[in-house]
Design a protein that fits this description.
alpha+beta; Creatine Amidinohydrolase; 4 helices; 24% strand; 4-stranded antiparallel beta sheet; 5-stranded antiparallel beta sheet
């Protein structure tokens, strides 16, 4: 395994990519409404990405046909946008988006409620987000990767949620997916020792029910096996000698 350490120049480019991605998420999140098709979400997302001079990371990546992964309710990740799939009041929708800025990727995901959602759905979204912040307490030089994984799992599982095991976070830089893999579930091995300059896409995927998932016939869309709701929260994170820097989220929102 070779985990890249980014130079000062590379970190600046990834910072810029992250700031743009944050704006894409903010703008797209505000546009969501009942009756909107998931294809409309994708088209608007791509338009916003390109308006900032960026390229969508996901479009045509290993054959994925869209710029935004739009996953609704029991869809965990990689939902393919469709003009036939309309958002409804009470839905939750996860938007996973990546941008390329001057050759460098940033990757982030957010889960939104559409109109009035149930208390259980709102708690799942908030706790999935918080599990990320529990994990990055250990995204510091000198710690090991398993400390991030174990902290995410311990927090999410304390509520009886299922932490998805078939999908993991990853390193990121000039490639969308780089070493190391970053599980969100408990690890026995320590994993790599973290060093300043590593850039990681940390992304808890948390199910309200069991952790088991199934791939749909399109070979992309992943759903919960038991039909329970799923939430997804992700940011691109820079490991430093001190506190981690979240490149795709402003400090005022962290």
């Amino acid at each position: 395994m070779s985990v890249s350490i980014k130079s000062a120049r590379e970190i600046e480019l990834m910072r810029a990519a992250g700031k743009i991605l944050e704006k894409v998420h903010d703008n797209l999140g505000k546009a969501l409404r009942p009756g909107m098709s998931t294809l409309e979400i994708d088209r608007l997302g791509e338009e916003i990405i390109r308006s900032y001079g960026c390229i969508p990371s996901f479009k045509n990546y290993n054959g994925y046909p869209a710029s935004v992964c739009v996953s609704v309710n029991n869809e965990v990740v990689h939902g393919i946008p469709s003009k036939m799939h309309l958002l409804r009041e009470g839905d939750i929708v996860s938007l996973d988006i990546g941008v390329i800025y001057k050759g460098y990727h940033s990757d982030a995901a957010r889960t939104h409620g559409i109109g009035e959602i149930s208390e259980d759905a709102a708690l799942l979204i908030e706790r999935t987000r918080q599990s990320f912040f529990e994990g990055i307490k250990y995204a510091k030089e000198g710690h090991h990767l398993h400390e991030i994984s174990n902290a995410i799992a311990a927090y999410a599982e304390s509520f009886g949620y299922g932490v998805v095991r078939d999908l993991v976070g990853h390193g990121i830089g000039t490639h969308l997916h780089e070493d190391p893999q970053i599980p969100n579930f408990t690890q026995k091995s320590r994993g790599v020792r973290l060093k300043a300059g590593m850039t990681l896409a940390i992304e808890p995927m948390i199910n309200a029910g069991r952790y088991d998932v199934v791939w749909q016939e399109d070979n992309w869309t992943v759903v919960t096996q038991d039909g329970s709701l799923s939430a997804h929260y992700e940011n691109t994170v820079l490991v430093t000698a001190g506190e981690p820097e979240i490149l795709s989220l402003s400090s005022t929102e962290a």
